[in-house]
Write a structure and sequence with these properties.
Elements lengths: L2 H13 L2 H8 L3 H15 L4 E4 L2 E4 L1 H33 E6 L7 H9 L4 E6 L15 E5 L7 E10 L1 E5 L19 E5 L4 H12 L6 E5 L1 H11 L3 E3 L1 H4 L8 E5 L5 E9 L6 H12 L3
Helix pairs in contact: 1-2, 1-4
Length: about 290
């Protein structure tokens, strides 16, 4: 006995005759009669009384009918929940961003190119080693190296480091800047407590760079502080390409093998959704 048999039985109950139920179900009457006989044989009782050519539920049939109705309704609710989940996988994505340099314009471009899809993005500031599941996201965008356990990673891009400054700065004429050239300059730092900020900090501390002054800034305030402090800032293309006021600035590569890497991170415990794969492909295409 399967769910189709139960639906056939309920149609017979509603129509009151095998011929009427067969017409509604678009099946042959002998086949429907055989299905009813199979149901009654399997449970070991007759479910209908035959009264003047009609099928009338007896007491056992009424109990069985109520049970069939409950089972079919539960089955339909279960299918609806599954279909909603599948629909969500195709149309809704939650992305957590732990990379202050990631251009969120890419998400807006993705939404414009894919109408009907919803992407919920949240910016997080969390320490390395945080459990993936605690972010409640389908995907994380974060700088590497990735220290989380139980995840898969996909490289988005790997950026060299640049020094951003005014065109009038003494270092502005260099084609490439050695780390030791940063001794004695005024450093303006972005996101000191972020992954990117810690990457820059470690690089400078390992090379024992001593600054004349050091202060923090946001991208929006960066140009103003560069002018006020006559300083420099370690940046990457994702940062200075999206600065609101970048005119009059130069960006010179730093002579170091250290690169800022950015990854998609997702759970290794469950399969990645088609929408998440499509989103990752779209974003990665910007860099290749």
């Amino acid at each position: 006995m399967n769910i189709q048999h139960l639906r056939y039985f309920l149609t017979i109950v509603r129509c009151g005759t095998l011929s009427g139920a067969a017409r509604e179900l678009h099946v042959a009457q002998p086949a429907l009669s055989a299905t009813l006989a199979k149901i009654e044989d399997e449970i070991g009782v007759k479910l209908f009384d035959r009264v003047r050519g009609r099928l009338i539920l007896n007491e056992k049939g009424k109990i069985f009918s109520r049970g069939c109705l409950d089972i079919c309704e539960d089955y339909d609710r279960m299918l609806e929940r599954v279909h909603r989940l599948v629909q969500r996988e195709w149309n809704e994505l939650t992305v957590g961003i732990l990379d202050i340099g990631f251009p969120q314009q890419f998400i807006l471009d993705f939404l414009a190119a894919n109408p009907g899809i919803q992407v919920n993005s949240n910016l997080f500031f969390q320490p390395a080693g945080q459990e993936f599941e605690s972010f409640h996201c389908d995907l994380l965008i974060m700088p590497g190296p990735v220290e989380m356990k139980g995840v898969e990673c996909r490289l988005i891009h790997s950026d060299p480091l640049f020094l951003t400054m005014l065109k009038t700065h003494p270092l502005a004429g260099y084609k490439q800047i050695a780390l030791q050239d940063l001794n004695g300059v005024n450093l303006i730092q972005l996101g000191a407590n972020s992954y990117y900020g810690r990457l820059v900090n470690n690089l400078l501390e390992q090379n024992k760079i001593v600054f004349a002054s050091r202060c923090s800034s946001t991208e929006r305030q960066l140009r103003q502080l560069l002018e006020k402090q006559q300083g420099v800032c370690v940046t990457i293309p994702d940062i200075w390409n999206t600065m609101p006021d970048a005119d009059g600035l130069v960006h010179i590569p730093i002579d170091t093998s250290v690169r800022r890497q950015c990854y998609f991170v997702y759970s290794a415990k469950r399969s990645i959704s088609p929408l998440a794969t499509h989103f990752m492909d779209y974003i990665c295409n910007f860099y290749h």
